[in-house]
Design brief:
This protein is α/β, with parallel strands linked by helices. The protein has 13 helices and nine strands. The chain has a seven-stranded mixed sheet with strand order 4-3-2-5-6-9-7, sandwiched between helices. Strands 1-8 form a two-stranded antiparallel ribbon. Helix 9 packs across helix 12. The chain starts with a helix and ends in a 22-residue tail after the last helix. 41% of the residues are buried.
Length: 350
C-alpha cells in the first residue's frame, strides 16, 4: 500500500483535457511550424514508457505544445521537467500544468536549435561518459520541419560531448516522420539505408519503438509517425571527428545508385582522384563495387580512418570540395548527368 501511495503522489490533480485546453485558449496547429497535436493520453503514456523509468529523473521536453506529452512525463514521476517551447500561444496552458505540479515544471520560451541545454540542469547530475547514462532524458513530439536538423545537431554534440551530452550519455526518445524513423534504424542492404543511418548508428544504439498512425494527430498529417529511442554508445563505432566522418559518409551517399568508389573518388582533387581513391579503398579493405547502402558502419569506419591518414599526408586535402571545383569550372549542369543523387544532397534529405 505504501508503494502504491508513493506512486499516486506522482499523479497530477484533475485538469481540463488537452482538447479542452485547445478550445479554452483557442489553439490551432500552425502548418508553417509543422505542428500536429497528439490528444490521446494512452499514446503519450506509451511514448514516455519507451524512455524507461522517469521516477526522480530530470527531463527536457522539446516543443510541448498544449501539454499532452508533458502530462505523461509528470505522471511518470519526473522530478524536474524543463519544457522548451518556441510558440508563446502555449505558455498559458503550460503555466496551468506548472501550478498543478509545484516545483516540478520549468518553462523556457525559445528555439531548441539554439537553446543551451548544458545550462538547464544542475552539474551534479553529470556522469562520466563510460558510466551508466545520467538521470536525464530528452523527450519530444518533434515538428517534422525541425526533427532532422535537430537530431543532426545532437549527434554532433554527442560526438563532442557538449550540450545535453555534457552530462554524460543522455538518452533521447523522439518522434519523426515514419520514413525518417526507418532511415535512422535501417541496416546495411535496406532501401532506407542513408547517411543518417550511418551517422546515427556509429554513435548510438537506436531503436524504432513503434508507429503512431497519422489519424491519431490533430490535424492529421499525410504520413505516419515513428517513435525512436537513442542511447549514446560508451565507445563510438567510428573513432574519428564528426565532421570528417560526415564528409566521407555524405560523399559516398550522394552517389547512392553508383558503386561506392564513385563517391570516394570525389573526396579528392581531379589530378589525384583515381590514385588516392584507390589507396583509400585498399587501406580500408573495402570492395569498390559495393553500393553505399551495402556498407556497414564498420566499413565506413575503415574508410574514415583511411581518409584521415590521407589527409594527414596531404595538407589541405580535408578542405577540398568537389562541388566548389566544378563551380569554378562552370560544370554545374553536368552534375546530375554524372550520377549525383540529388535526393540525398540537401540536409532535409539527410
Amino acid at each position: 500500500m505504501a508503494a502504491s501511495g508513493k506512486m499516486a503522489s506522482f499523479r497530477l490533480p484533475p485538469l481540463p483535457t488537452i482538447g479542452e485546453i485547445i478550445r479554452l485558449y483557442n489553439l490551432r496547429a500552425e502548418r508553417q511550424l509543422s505542428q500536429n497535436f497528439l490528444l490521446d493520453m494512452k499514446l503519450t503514456d506509451k511514448i514516455v514508457r519507451q524512455a524507461g523509468s522517469l521516477k526522480g529523473a530530470h527531463v527536457c521536453e522539446v516543443g510541448p505544445g498544449p501539454g499532452g506529452l508533458t502530462r505523461s512525463i509528470l505522471n511518470a514521476g519526473a522530478a524536474d521537467l524543463l519544457v522548451v517551447e518556441k510558440d508563446a500561444r502555449f505558455v498559458p496552458g503550460l503555466q496551468l500544468l506548472s501550478e498543478a505540479a509545484p516545483g516540478r515544471l520549468r518553462m523556457v520560451q525559445g528555439d531548441i536549435l539554439t537553446y543551451r541545454m548544458d545550462r538547464g540542469f544542475p552539474k551534479k547530475i553529470a556522469r562520466k561518459w563510460e558510466e551508466e547514462p545520467p538521470e536525464l532524458h530528452i523527450i519530444g513530439n518533434l515538428p517534422f520541419s525541425v526533427s532532422t536538423p535537430l537530431i543532426i545537431k545532437w549527434l554532433e554534440a554527442m560526438s563532442d560531448r557538449t550540450g545535453p551530452f555534457a552530462f554524460g550519455r543522455t538518452r533521447l526518445t523522439l518522434t519523426f516522420q515514419k520514413e525518417v524513423a526507418e532511415r535512422l534504424t535501417a541496416g546495411p542492404g535496406s532501401r532506407q539505408r542513408s547517411r543518417l543511418s550511418v551517422m546515427t548508428q556509429c554513435l548510438c544504439k537506436v531503436r524504432d519503438c513503434f508507429t503512431i498512425p497519422g489519424r491519431a494527430f490533430v490535424p492529421k498529417p499525410k504520413v505516419d509517425v515513428g517513435v525512436v529511442h537513442f542511447t549514446p554508445l560508451a565507445q563510438p563505432q567510428i573513432q574519428q571527428p564528426f565532421k570528417l566522418v560526415e564528409k566521407v559518409v555524405k560523399n559516398v551517399f550522394q552517389f547512392r545508385r553508383k558503386y561506392c568508389r564513385r563517391g570516394i573518388e570525389m573526396l579528392f582533387p581531379e589530378m589525384l582522384r583515381l590514385e588516392l581513391a584507390e589507396q583509400m579503398l585498399q587501406m580500408a579493405d573495402v570492395d569498390p563495387t559495393l553500393r553505399p547502402t551495402q556498407l556497414s558502419v564498420a566499413k565506413f569506419g575503415a574508410l574514415a580512418d583511411a581518409y584521415s591518414k590521407l589527409c594527414a599526408r596531404n595538407p589541405g586535402l580535408f578542405s577540398y570540395d568537389f562541388r566548389e571545383e566544378r563551380r569554378n569550372k562552370g560544370r554545374d549542369k553536368g552534375l546530375l548527368a554524372e550520377g549525383l543523387d540529388s535526393e540525398e544532397d540537401d540536409e532535409e534529405h539527410y
